[in-house]
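As a warm-up, study this chain.
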Amino acid sequence: GVVQWKSVTGIKIVTDVEYPTRKYIILKVANPQLYINRERSLAKRRSMILKYHNYGSPIVFSERGVDSTFEELETTVRAYYENFLVRKAEKSGPKETIPAR
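Now compare it with the structure written out below.
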């Protein structure tokens, strides 16, 4: 599925307790139930619910299934999120201040 950057409130990295060599990227989202409800597959929805209970977010992934290392994936995800935050700040423009009297 697609996760909109505007829904992301933070990024967290965790290590699997049972397999310490495995790491996961967790995208904390503002409305996790929205992403869970959007999933049509019952099995995937159940997986997202379990991830939400275990990690605090239904959006949890690793480098497995992609052609990169975990470090490359983490760097890319963080760079895209940072880019989104910069663009968002630029769109909101400079804040006007009212001089004190």
